[in-house]
Amino acid sequence: MTTPTGRPLAHPARDEIRVEGVLHALSDPLRLRIVRALAHEEGDLCCSDFELPVSKSTTTHHFRVLRESGVINQVYQGTAKVNRLRRADLDALFPGLLDGVLTALDHQEQRLAGRR
Predict the structure, then answer these.
(1) pLDDT tens, 39-64?
(2) How far apart are CA 38 and CA 13, in angstroms?
(3) Letter string b/e over residues 48-64, b meaning 16 or more CB atoms within 10 A of that residue's CB
(4) Cα–chain center distance at 71
(5) pTM of the model
(6) How many other C-beta atoms lie within 10 A of the C-beta of residue 116?
(7) Distance from C-alpha of 115 to C-alpha of 108, rounded to nearest angstrom
(8) Is the alpha carbon torsion for 55, 60, 61, 63 positive or negative?
(9) What is the C-alpha separation between 14 and 34, in angstroms, rounded?
């Protein structure tokens, strides 16, 4: 992970992460899009690496929901926020949840693409 700089951002400790918070964070299509991108990325991604069809303030809100629920970790790298999926924490707390959600998302997209 990159070396953090700047002010720290609040994250829940592993034992503070709750399944209902994670499920809420994963219930939004744009947040799922972010999580999917992070799940397929070997390293960290800056918020600006995501092309989301919403305003900057709405994008910031989505990243905050993901961070505060314990789904992602964010640190400042210079003036940019760098994001990483908290896969190890999520897999330890809720085995199979993240992979199940991502697999379900893939199946849903395939099913919907077949209708077009």
Answers:
(1) 998 889 898 888 899 989 999 999 99
(2) 20
(3) eebeeeeeeeebeebbb
(4) 5
(5) 0.89
(6) 4
(7) 11
(8) positive
(9) 21
